[in-house]
Amino acid sequence: MLCHEAIAALEAAGLDPMVGFLHQHRWGRPSLALDLMEEFRPMTVDVAVLRCVATGQIRPEQFSTEPDTGSRMGEDAKYVFLAAYERRMLTLVTHRTLGRRVSLRVAVHLQAKMLARHLLDPGEPYHAMRWK
After folding, report:
1. Pick from 104, 112, 103: which is nearest to 40 by CA?
2. Is-above-0.90 flag for pTM?
3. Cα–Cα–Cα angle for 81, 9, 83, nearest 5°?
4. How many domains is the chain partitioned into structurally?
5. DSSP string spanning 21-89?
6. For residue 101, is it within any domain?
7. What confidence score (pLDDT) does residue 132 get?
8. Residue 23: what are its φ and ψ, rounded to 5°?
9. Are 9 and 16 in contact (CB under 8 A)?
10. What's 85's domain CATH number?
11. Cβ pair 104, 117 in contact under 8 A
12. What is the block-wise mean pLDDT of the chain (132 residues), using blocks of 10 residues?
């Protein structure tokens, strides 16, 4: 889900999400979106997962394991995780460069725009999101 958010942000900023810097180019792989995700994954997806597990909202019995398909999350666990992810993406953080509070979803878009600006003018600095 975060990958799709990053792809949308990069495309809105006029960048090709397939051509990245950190992740090796592979056909069909959105390498630049994966690069952008690196800044946000710990504070979005990881926090949502850890909170769901720590509070007991998601439990091992909500998963099924099949030898040919691997582990699958049950419908009730998917609903809980999606709600936790959405709550997390709406969390307000202070954007260090802009000095204003924005949601994590907006921060993804702002970082994509800042990256595009930096690529067009290398003198324009790019500051990655920094977490406390």
Report:
1. 104
2. no
3. 15
4. 1
5. SSSPP-TT--HHHHHHHHHHTIIIIIHHHHHHHHTTSS-GGGEEEETTTEEEE-HHHHHHHHHHHHHHH
6. yes
7. 64
8. -95, 135
9. no
10. 1.20.120.920
11. no
12. 95 91 74 92 94 95 90 94 96 88 95 93 86 68
